[in-house]
Design brief:
single chain; alpha/beta; 4 helices
Length: 105
């Protein structure tokens, strides 16, 4: 499995450490949504984990672009906060998961 984490926090990277429990997956990181889309144009990943400081709306825009490039890729949204309406929008956008702080990786 290949994971692309956008501007991940150190705790997330530690939780995704492929050495833990013998899990077999590759973790890549990038600095923002534009870089993420550029990478996805070149190489497929299984899961994208959004930047924890971007809003749900920004992440849903990313999810829309992602679906155009790589329809099978799942996105996990990490957002600073989310309203009920934003959560419903995320469900409609087929977001795999949506989390707000405190993050328990």
């Amino acid at each position: 499995m290949r994971v692309l984490a956008i501007r991940p926090e150190p705790a997330l990277l530690a939780a995704l450490d492929p050495v833990l429990d013998g899990r077999a997956f590759e973790v890549e990181t990038c600095t923002g949504n534009i870089e993420a889309l550029q990478r996805l144009r070149v190489r497929a990943v299984d899961v994208v984990v959004s930047d924890p400081v971007t809003t749900v709306d920004e992440d849903l825009a990313l999810a829309s672009e992602l679906r155009n490039l790589r329809p099978a890729t799942r996105i996990i949204v990490l957002a600073p906060h989310a309203t009920h309406a934003e959560l419903i929008d995320a469900i409609r956008a087929h977001v795999f998961a949506c989390f707000t702080p405190p993050f328990d990786y």
